[in-house]
Amino acid sequence: MASKPPDILLQGIDALRRVSRHMFRYRASIIAFFAVLLLIYGLYLRPPSDFPAGKTLSIPRGATLAEAARLLEEGHVVRSAHAIKIATYLFGGGTNIDAGDYRFPSPINALRIAYAITVGNFGRSFIRVTVPEGATVREIGALFALGTFTAFDYDAFLAAAKAREGFLFPDTYLFASAVTSDEVITTMQKNFLQKIGQLEPLIQSSGHSLADIVIMASLLEKEARSNETRRTIAGILWRRLEIDMPLQVDAVFGYIRGADTYSPSLEDLKIKSPYNTYLYPGLPPGPIGNPGLAAIEAAATPIASPYLYYLTDTHGIMHYSLTYEEHLKNKRKYLP
Question: Domain-by-domain residue ranges, the chain?
């Protein structure tokens, strides 16, 4: 007759059975938990198949979380507006979201989208652009139309910026790759207003309007490089205006012809354009470029002199004369 197992052995086996049953239930719970997570991810958090990678989605200023979530769902950035709202709350965003233009280079899930709109991670790369002093609206537009700025419209920029010629401040800027034409104009105009503030006392004491100062500065930007020479030429040009003498500035013909640099011919001097300072007295109707701060300061602080004429020789040296006869002599002497 077989002997009965010791009680302690039976207790041990029973304990193992209970542990095994608990482990099975624990493993089943873990599997069920992850299955639910996968289901939630697949249904609500996974990026949509038609995710707008590389495109810009705008959340307007003042938009609520509910409105932003709806825009994200309608734009196929997320699968569920409800899910993005819950995820945003998890990241502590609550109803506070950062408005702006968001760009996501590749599809990302709703959790990462929620984090982005909570902290303002717009997903945009920034590009450094240097606008040279004296650049025209046409030249500025060409800088942005090289293909780097995906949302920039050259024609729209020209149409909107033409009336702002002279008031788009030349400077070095950092623009998002998805910057629009209107955003470029607004940024450059704001910069102009900020920079011009430091010259307001000089402009007010000059006796000329800001508009006239900017027009004169745009001429000086093309006519000379050093500040002292610009101030001397400014004195000559303001004096010509006082005595009703035509300005006769050659730099306007590059603007009329749409060329960066241009030496006018005798035929050009007859062009019927309001910018032709040989045919029409007074200042041109607008600036011929966007001058920098030094040229604007020179226009507001001219140096008085007895001269009425000037020319630059082939070495870049300026020569002044009192009369037209002296000016013709200088042309024969210093120009080929």
Answer: 56-119
